[in-house]
Design a protein that fits this description.
Elements (H helix, E strand, L loop, with lengths): L3 E4 L3 H11 L3 E4 L5 H6 L8 E4 L9 E4 L2 E4 L5 H6 L1 H6 L1 H8 L4 H6 L2 H7 L7 H6 L3 E6 L3 E6 H4 E3 L2 E2 L5 E9 L5 E8 L10 E9 L12 E9 L6 E2 L1 H7 L6 H14 L10 H21 L29 E4 L6 E5 L2 E5 L7 H8 L18 E4 L2 E4 L12 E3 L4 H5 L8 H9 L8 H14 L5 H7 L10 H15 L2
Parallel strand pairs: 1-3, 2-3, 16-20
Antiparallel strand pairs: 1-15, 4-5, 5-10, 6-7, 6-10, 8-9, 11-12, 12-13, 13-14, 16-17, 18-19, 18-20
Helix pairs in contact: 10-11, 11-12, 15-18
């Protein structure tokens, strides 16, 4: 799929490689979009991947001078786990929670979601409403900063030169007199592309004695996703809210104006008329929640990450750039299931194919090959990921655990199985067996992360695993039984 795979260990080296390869290269961090595009031959001109995921210090979330700053390697799960983002950037945290499933959120970055520039991408909508800016950098021209309306040019079109890298995202943290919310309509509860998304950020005049939701609105920002070629602002709806308290009449009026400005299309996820109607419904819901102070009601108290015992920050690498070329002799050296492995000839493969074809670890299954089913779930440096969406060279210098290594990763004393494997046998949760390895890996990661998970947390953990036998009841019983086996 690609000919050259570079793993630089500094931003300067990444920029040098971009300047050298330009249009033939793509930066990857999580790679959850790029791998699929190359697999589907949607980018025939790209033959070089520059993996920046091992550069130290780019995965930080900080607060400086009232602005929240996200590094280019900050993942969706990093935002969800950040108390700062949940408290002072709730719309973004809610959007990140709506992205894919835990395995996708462990790899996919906010920066990648922004650069892909689909109008259905979840994080663009709230960041636009929050007034975010992007910092871009090239080796030749240095840095420049763009607001979102400048950056987005059209469907999947952005003002990003071939030699530029997005190196920072910043936006004002919500103040005491501000509230925000993000709502998304998908065709299912997880792993769903947005039919419609709405982000609202309101600034209230709290100089009086009224509760904040009943105070006059000083400023309103309403952004809409998946209803136009780019994310759009509902300017008329914003204007009608300014200068007066949120009341039912104003909320209804603003919702109708938001729907009027939408320019949706008919596609497989919904008709234009349906989308327009849902813009009105979701704008009204968001504004009503902000009026009532109920925007946090559905936020999970202790969300599941599938980080096991880690924190979701992948280890960086030291030294110079590592190169893996198609057909060349550069080996991929990894620790797989506790054993050092050296693989030749897999430099242009996915991790899934390398595990199955080169290491003979066929327990990891290929179901959809596009990150939808979770059958290929493995642990990469402790975090659950979908192996079909990870380039094999990304495993160089990393630790990988597959279903074959699960017993040694957490066996029952005196037995040769992990507790969740034993529980699957005892409850009949195996069923046809094809999706079972992925379910086991997700379940084991959950039990390492949460000693006594709730039923909601179990469902969160398994949201990225599709069972085509449609029999989740025994799977849920198995996780519950395994929990008792590992409880202290």
């Amino acid at each position: 799929m690609w000919k050259n795979y570079y793993t630089p260990t500094s931003v300067d080296e990444a920029l040098r490689l971009l300047a050298e390869h330009r249009e033939r290269a793509r930066l990857v961090a999580g790679g959850t979009d790029v791998i699929l595009e190359l697999e589907r031959e949607q980018r025939p001109s790209v033959d070089t991947l520059i993996d920046v995921s091992r550069i130290h210090g780019l995965d930080k979330i900080t607060l400086k001078d009232g602005d929240i700053q996200l590094g280019p390697l900050v993942t969706h799960n990093h935002v969800i786990a950040s108390a700062l983002c949940v408290e002072r950037a709730l719309p973004l945290a809610q959007a990140c929670w709506a992205v894919g499933a835990p395995q996708i959120r462990n790899r996919g970055t906010i920066a990648g979601n922004l650069v892909t520039a689909s109008p259905a991408n979840d994080t663009i909508t709230p960041l636009w409403a929050l007034g975010a800016q992007l910092t871009l950098m090239s080796a030749e021209r240095g840095r420049r900063t763009l607001a979102f309306p400048q950056f987005y040019q059209g469907v999947r079109q952005v003002d990003l030169a071939p030699d530029e890298m997005l190196v920072g995202i910043s936006f004002p943290a919500l103040r005491k007199n501000q509230r925000g919310a993000f709502l998304k309509l998908g065709l299912r509860q997880a792993q769903a592309i947005a039919v419609v998304s709405v982000a609202v950020v309101l600034t209230f005049d709290i100089s009086g004695r009224q509760p904040i939701g009943q105070s006059p609105v000083l400023d309103a920002r309403i952004t809409l996703g998946s209803v136009a070629p780019t994310i759009m602002s509902a300017v008329d709806a914003q204007t009608t809210l300014a200068g007066r308290p949120l009341g039912q009449g104003n909320i209804q009026r603003a919702a109708r104006l938001a729907a009027a400005v939408a320019r949706p299309i008919d596609d497989v996820r919904g008709s234009a008329a349906y989308r327009r109607n849902m813009v009105e419904v979701f704008t009204r819901r968001a504004l009503t929640a902000l009026q009532q102070g109920a925007e946090r009601e559905n936020w999970p108290a202790d969300p599941v990450m599938l980080w096991a015992k880690g924190n979701g920050h992948f280890p960086s690498l030291a030294g110079g750039t590592i190169v893996h070329r198609e057909g060349r002799g550069e080996p991929i050296q990894s620790v797989v299931n506790g054993r050092a492995e050296t693989v030749f000839g897999a430099n242009d493969k996915t991790l899934l194919r390398m595990l199955r074809e080169d290491l003979g670890l066929t327990g990891t299954k290929e179901g959809c090959a596009e990150g939808e089913c979770g059958a290929c779930t493995v642990l990469l440096d402790g975090a659950a990921v979908m192996a079909c969406m990870v380039a094999a060279p990304r495993a160089h210098g990393a630790e990988v655990v597959t279903i074959e290594g699960l017993p040694d990763w957490g066996r029952i004393k005196g037995q040769g199985l992990h507790p969740i494997q034993q529980a699957f046998i005892e409850t009949g949760a195996v069923q046809c067996g094809y999706c079972t390895p992925g379910l086991l890996m997700s379940g084991a990661s959950l039990l390492a992360e949460k000693q006594q998970p709730t039923q909601n947390q179990v469902r969160q953990a398994l949201a990225g695993n599709l069972c085509r036998c449609t029999g989740y009841y025994s799977v849920l019983r198995a996780v519950e039984k395994a929990e008792k086996m590992v409880a202290p």
